[in-house]
Amino acid sequence: MQDATDNRLAAQYEAYPYPARDPREEAKRLIVGSPSHLLEIDHWIFGARRPASRPIRALMAGGGSGDGTMMLAQQLAQAGRPGEVVWLDRSTAARKVAEERAKVRGLTNIRFVNGSLLDLPELGLGHFDYIDCCGVLHHLPDPAAGLAALAGALAPGGGIGLMVYAPHGRTGVYMLQDALRLLAPASEAPAERVEVAKRLWKHTPETAWLRRNPWIDDHIKGGDAGLYDLLLNPRDVAFTVPALAALIEGAGLHLRCFVEPGRYDPDRYLPDPRLRARTAAMTPVERAALAEAITGNMGIHIAYCTLGEAVEPAWDDPASIPVLRELDGPTLARGIPADGVLRVAFDDLRVGVPLPRLAAAILSRVDGQRSIGAIGAALAANGIAQDVFLRDFAALRGALEPFNRLLLAAPA
């Protein structure tokens, strides 16, 4: 499905591997995010029911310079979990960066393959338990065909983590893309186009919407690769919530959740009971679409989807082990405000999340090792009745799971 635009896109990522990364910085930090965090895969894709001892085959479809690949491969290695992460991309320049990053980290669980996700059947890579497709579908000539190709490469019970651009939070981007098509046509060399784009941004008046958009900064902080990808990309299609949901359904996949799920709950922004009475009658996709439309700050959508109906995490099983994503339980417990309301912020939007009375006592015992039953037993020894613990634990889960923070770990 290559066309002239696709050829220009391929040339772009050879000239400017994205995102711009210096392999030497791997010794300093691991870039962590969504999708494809191991705890998220265990929870949202496998319902925290797939044993950690079972090997995972993961595909990074459009792996670029390797952020997601490094994160997942490193997390598997640190946890001592078996598996293979297959990096797949057309860009030889991006592969060079990703391979050097893996070398610095000493990772041996990554396999590098040059190629297109559209050619998966011909590449003979087999089937995968998990597929990452982050920032790729919105550049393809036919996103539906791309997602269908990925769905066809899933093993039974597998799932996909997606990231695509969203329109409202990218307000101003497409206007400057239009301007640069006039000022820096695609026929010019990439370096010359970057120079023109830098000059344009320097002199863009304050009335330009991108000047007023605080959530998009790749052209400021992402180096030449970030600027090119944002403002000079030859094909860039943004998806609303309904459009992405339709794309997922069309590929025969089940939408498990948007990340973070709580961000897509319109009731968090609408305290008016008459408005909530209307949102209550909406489908989950309609509710998410409403949240997208009224907040206006979503520049991307991240979604997890599964092949077949999702397996729900066993929150009612005392043997299940709760885990906090990128948080320390005791530290979080000590930081709970006096009023018991946790303030959560995303892209300048703040919401209050009420926590139950036993939140601190429970969180201080969440260490990724103790089960729900063990935590309840510890509190029972301090005089907390079982029914009171279970009520407050359910409330705590209802407060933190929607923000992708309290999850269940994979069983041993």
Automatic annotation (TrEMBL):
Methyltransferase type domain sequence ranges: 61-159
Top-level taxonomic group: Bacteria
UniProt keyword annotations, A-Z: Methyltransferase, Transferase
GO biological process: methylation
GO MF terms, alphabetically ordered: methyltransferase activity
InterPro entries: Methyltransf_12, SAM-dependent_MTases_sf
The name this protein goes by in its record: Class I SAM-dependent methyltransferase
Record organism: Teichococcus aerophilus
Classification lineage: Bacteria, Pseudomonadati, Pseudomonadota, Alphaproteobacteria, Acetobacterales
